[in-house]
Amino acid sequence: MGAWTPEMEPASIAGGAVTLVEGSSFCVCTPGGDLTGSGPYGVFFQDTRILSRWDLRVDGEAPDPLAAMTPDPYRGIFVGRLPRRGGRTDANLLVQRERRVGSGLREDVVLRNFANEPVACTVTISVEADFADLFEVKDGRVVNRGELRAQRQGETLVLDQHWRDRHRGAVVWASGGSMHAGQSVGHSAGTLRYETVIPARGQWLTSILVQPLVDGEAVEASFPLDRPPYESLPASRLQRWRESTPIATTGHDALQRVLRRSQQDLGALRIFDPSDPALAAVAAGAPWFMALFGRDSLLTAYMALPVDRGLALGTLRTLARHQGETTDALTEEEPGRILHEVRLGVESGLSLGGGSTYYGTVDATPLFVVLLGELARWGAEPQEVVELLPHADRALEWVRGPGDRNGDGFVEYQRATDRGLANQGWKDSWDGITYRDGRPAEAPLALCEVQGYVYDAYRTRAELARMLGEGDVARTWDDRASVLKQAFNEQFWLPGPGWFALALDHDGRPVDACASNMGHCLWSGIIDEDKAPMVAERLLSPSMFSGWGVRTLSNEMGAYDPVSYHNGSVWPHDNALIVAGLMRYGFVQEAQRVSEALLEAAEYFGGRLPELFCGFDTQEYPQPVPYPTSCSPQAWAAAAPIHVIRTLLRFDPQLPRDELWVDPVLPPRFMPLRVEGVALGGGRIDLEVSADETVVTGVPPDVHVRHESASRLRRSSSRLE
Questions:
Q1: Residue 91 — pLDDT band, cuts 50, 70, 90?
Q2: Does residue 6 lie in a domain region?
Q3: Pair (68, 126) in one structural domain
Q4: Which residues pair with 152 in a beta bridge?
Q5: Residue range 98-155, pLDDT digits in tens
Q6: Is residue 427 part of a domain?
């Protein structure tokens, strides 16, 4: 079978599964803490499953789960009790497993005896490792390969795999018990065994450490047994995150829960460059996308700027380091192109393009420039911007060169081989781009929203040139933006139905479906003023607006399916950008309506918006219907509520111009709202909004706060007009 793509979605994880994440490592387990040896459960390091079974038993019995708690993204506490058996009263025996996931796993096991007499018991942990590739696990098609071994070495159990030139393994450190190394089909296997007597009203405890082995060498443990866990690097990173990110308080309890959950999830989804651990970027989502994704990471960093400006800088620097240098059909690398995804330890042929880095995305390259400009507006150090500017110019060279395949001024995509993504925009499923009658469109395709991103990138580059005093350069990019905008409105607009084509196909004909993508064109500002009211009306029409958000595809289209990935579902990040686009063109009530719907939907998901949910109307079901394989937490879904609130605040920094625009239009039920500690320029500001006034404090003395009408702010929010 070929490479995994969104055309082959992973099997859904069983209800109640617990996911722990730290950097690109993660664990998926049952509510009791077990890894069952089958399905998607496991501990993953560098995209390899280093533990596929980790089952704890007491006298051969599995504890009945009582609670599963995740006080930190990387830490889970699993509490259970033993079932009653044969007249014994060992239901009074409580089992607690505290697990921390990072570079491997640390598990602290505590058995507490609440009886008035000692309890003798045997504790076993069954261990297996298949060293399966993440893509295989995700797709449910694990292939046994290579030599698998398990051997006891002193107080350790070593599980490893040799295949071709690869040597992967895991070493299990445990003291006070016995170990047995065995073999099962397709796994390295072993057992940890403890014989113990727990005193009356007393407890027994042990700690176990699992370290990954790469080429025979143990990776440094994130939570070594000889140090308190709170002194670990993951703990200190999380503490710094919590201390440095803004605090939002509001009279609307549900909104406050959503904003706090979003900040927590963004902190959990950070990944750190091994060569520069201080550099943080954001992974796309848990559990299967704990990796750097060009489009996802860029848009998430953009929307998360009010929370952490460092994510934008880290994402830009990391992507710049991997920017395309040569032309390679298999990986779709091209000079200047920004990558689609990076994977570590992935078997050749399993990942997209068959390598660790795949470049098959059409929108990440212009979005790189867009994010750099927005970071500058938030007050990035001038030197930080200057250092990244050559990468922005190389990205624009790709946009105007290989990105424009037929020289018509629009950016198109077509995969170079049958191993890549057939669709390379954010709707990258095989049927994500369709005509009105439901037929899939054939590449090369020029997506409408991508032309908007390019337009924004051109205007951004002009603004950066003005910041550097390069007037002639600025005029060149402004002129290019104007030409693109005129061509876009002439060729993509469908005057009959009154919406923008989803794309232009390989013959230059409009792909005439009514889709949410045109909302992104409002966000970028490429839509002419006279057409914007019709776009806003269509997006809020019953065929597009479900009551919980704007659907990805109108229910009047031939491909509509409310339980599809891209053809009728509701995506929070999509809606957040639509809200920003509506506000940009002055459609305040429409933006408020979508915002309130989306944030209300979040309440039904426990305050955490998923990657997507089904597109059923509120008249059909009284609450949003989950999508079965949706990632949660997922990066741009986590950032979406933050961007929605920023939009409703009409908070628009323009620090290179010494200006900050703030003109809130929060719905009354979201007030009062106070946000403390927003990083802006070299300092932090506080913002307080009530029905009577807006107060901004801590603004640098040379920055002027502007409070003006919606129409004036709209022009400012277009940033470069």
A1: low
A2: no
A3: yes
A4: 157
A5: 999 999 999 999 999 998 999 999 999 999 999 988 878 887 778 777 778 888 888 8
A6: yes
Per residue in 391-416, pLDDT (tens digit) is 999 999 999 999 999 999 999 999 99
pLDDT band for 160, please (50, 70, 90 cuts).
confident
Match 């201390």 to its residue by tokens: 243
- Strand segments, DSSP code E, in 13-92 are 18-22, 25-29, 35-36, 42-45, 48-51, 53-58, 64-72, 75-81
3-state secondary structure string across 332-385: CECCCCCCCEECCCCCCCCCHHHCCEECCCCCHHHHHHHHHHHHHHCCCCHHHH
* Total length of the chain: 721
Q: Please enumerate in sequence order all residues whose Cβ is within 8 A of that of 186, keeping only pairs 6 or more positions apart, or say none.
A: 130, 142, 144, 148
**Whether residue 449 is found in the same domain as residue 370:** yes
**Same domain for 308 and 171?**
no
* Closest to 32 measured CA to CA, from 97, 119, 86, 124: 97
Residue 12 lies in a domain: no
**Which residues have a Cβ under 8 Å from the Cβ of 220 and sit 6 or more positions away?**
103
Average pLDDT over residues 72-92: 77
Both 195 and 321 in a single domain? no
- Residue 187's alpha-carbon distances to 131, 138, 183, 344, 664, in angstroms, are 8, 18, 7, 21, 58
Torsion of CA 154, 156, 161, 166, to 10 degrees: -90
Cα 114 to its chain centre, rounded Å, is: 43
Q: Quick check: is 8 in a domain?
A: no
Total count of domains within the chain:
3
489, 511: one domain: yes
Sign of the Cα torsion 304, 305, 308, 314 reads positive
Per-state percent for the chain, helix, strand, coil, to nearest 5: 30, 30, 40
* pTM (2 d.p.): 0.91
